Protein 1
Amino acid sequence: MMHKLPKLKVGDKVAILSPSFAAPGRFSAVYEFGLSRVREVFGLEPVEFPTTKKLGASREDRARDLIAAFENPDIKAVIATIGGDDQVTYIKNLPSEPFINNPKPFFGFSDNSHFANFLFLNDIPSYYGAAVMTQFAMQGNMDPFTITFIKRALFDEGKFELIASDAYSDQGLNWDDTSLLTTKRQHWPNEGHIWDGDGKAEGLLWGGCVESVDEMLRHGVVIPTLEQFENIILMLETSEEIPSADYVSRILRAFGERGILGRARGVVMGRAKAWEFDKPHTPEQKEKYRKDQQEAVLRTIRKYNQKIPIVQNMNFGHTDPQIPMPYGGRARIDVGAKKIFADF
C-alpha cells in the first residue's frame, strides 16, 4: 500500500536538487528566478545541496544528495531543478531504506521518471511535474493554472478534477538572454482533453516520459509487475526530443507485447510538445505532429485492448501550463461524463 505523504505548510524547508542535469550551474539567473517563486508564491524556504549547481557531478554524489534530502527531518519536500538523460545509470542502485523510512513529496518530471518509478516500487507516491527551471521559473508570470495545481500538491488533500487549460504553450525562450525573464511566452488555444474508450476506470498513476520509460524497458530496470499493472493507469508523455509517432507506437507496442496494455486500467497522455529550438515548427506543423501521435497512440493501444479509457492532450509533461500529476496516486476516469479526477 502506498504511503500517505504529509502535506506542507508555509515556511517549510524544501530541498532543491539536480538528480540529472545541474542546469542551475549553467543558467544561474533562471534558477534564481525560480527560487524567488518558491519563496514568494508558495512561502517555502528552498535549501540547496552540494550538487544542485555542480555541473558534471558524479552519480554517487547526486545519490548522496537524494538520500541526505530524504533523511533530513527539516526538509519537508524535494523539488528537482530539471530533467536530463542519465538517471537510468544510477537510480536503480539506490538503497531503499532511506526513502521508505522518510517518505516525503518529490516533484520532478522527464528524466526524473526513473526516480519516480523507484519511489513507486517502494510504495512512495510522488508528483510528476513542477521543476524549478521550467514551471517555477516560467518567464513573465507563473501560470495561474500551474500555481493552483502545485498548491494542491503541496498543501491540499483530497480528490480534485484534472481539468483542461484554456490555452497552452510549448515554445520556450532563450535562457541565455536574461532580459527575456520578464517576457510572457506565446500561447495558443487548447483543444481540451481527447477521449476514447468505454465506461469508467480507476487505478494508480504510473509511467512518465516515454523516452525515459523506453530506457527502463531497454535496460531491464525493474518496473511494476503484471499483477500490479492490473491496478495501474498508464501515464505517458513525450519530451523536447519530439519523437516520431512511429517511435511512440513502438514503445506502446512493447507494453502490449509484455501483456501490460491488456491489464492496465486506462491510459492518459500528456499534450505532446511539438516545438523546440532545433525544430521550430509552424502552428500547422505542430498540429499535424500532435494529431499523428494521438492517432498512433489509439491505433497501437487498440490492437491490445479494445475498451480501456484513453485520455489524451492532458496538461502534464513538457508543455505548459502543467499539473504535477500524483504519480502513485489514485485516479478515476469517467469517459461518459468526460471527467478525470486524482487524489492529491
Protein 2
Amino acid sequence: SVVIYGANQHTVEMLSLIKDVPKPKIISIIDYNPKINSISNIPIIKPKDKFLSEVDLIIISTDRNEELLFKNAKSLVKETKIPIIRIYHDYLVNYFAKTFLVNSHPITPKTSYIMCTVRRSGSVVLESLLKSTNLVGNPKWHFGKLYKLTKNLQLETDYLDIINKIITLSSSKNKIFGTKMHWATYNQFETAVTNTNKFGPLKGDRLVRSVFPNVHYIFLKRNNNVKQAISLFKAQKTDIWAKTKEHDSHDLTLSYNFDGILQALKSIKYEEKSWTNFFRENDIKPLTLIYEDFIKDFDKTIITIFKFLDVKVPTNFSLPKPKYKKLADNLSEEWYVIFSKDYAKFCKK
C-alpha cells in the first residue's frame, strides 16, 4: 500500500496523469495542513502513528521543497524503515544508476576512476566492454546529463546526495566505481559540486578526490584528429553516436562541409588540450589509451586497465565481442582525403 505525502497541485496533476496506468494501491494522501478532503477520490488525512502499520511505501509529491518534505517524512516513519521515494531526486538516481532504489544494494567503493575522454575516441565501446567484465563498475556518462536535468528543471535537490547514491549503486561487487567525462562534463561537474558550498575553495583534482575515493584517471584520446573530426561532424548531423551490429544500415544523406569539419577539429583539439592542461596543473599521470591501439586489441587494453586499477585478472579471461560497430565508412575515407587537401591549402593562407 502506498501513501502520497503532499496534498497540492502537483499531486492533483500527477494523479491525473497516472489515472489509467496500472499502479499499486494508494490508500491515502497525507498533509499536515490539508485544505481539501480528497484528491481523485483518495482521502487526505493528517499523519498519525497508527496509520504506518498499513503503509509499504511513501512517495513525496512536490516540485518545490522536496528535501524539506523528505526530512519530515523521515521523522514521521522513524524506526519503521518504510521506504520513502522522492519523485525527482530518486528518479535521477534510478535513471543514472540504472537501478530501483527500493530493491537496491548499495556498495561503498574503495577505488574509483574517471575515463577522461575526447568525443569520438571510442569511449562508448570501451565503456561497454568495461561494464561487461563486472569488475570495474559501469563507467557511464553519469554527470553531464545529471547537471543539465537539475539545472533545466531547477530542482531543489541535494546534488551531492544524488552523486553519492549513483556512486554506491553503480559500483561493482569488488568495490570499484567508474564514470566517463568529456571536458565539458568535468566543467559542469566541478561547477555543480562547488555550488554546494561544502568543499570551500577546492578545485581540480583536490575537489575530485573529495567526491570520489582513491580516484584514478584514464585518458582516452585519438591520434588522427582529422578522422575524429569527420566522425564528430557526421554524428552531429545524423544524431547517430553509436551503432550496434543489429542496426547496421542507416541512410546517410550528408554533404561534405569543410567549415563544419574544421569547427569539429578545433573543438576536439580544445578538449584534448584542456584535459592535458588539467593533468599537468594537478600533477596527474593518467593511464593514456590511444584509440588506434585500443581497437586493434580490446583484451590487451582491458587488462592494462585492470592492472592500473589493481584489479586481479581472472584466470582464462576473455572479453565478449563488442556490440558496437565502427561508424567510419567509405564516405568518411573520401572526406578524409578531400579535407586533408583543403586543410593544407587553408593553413597556407
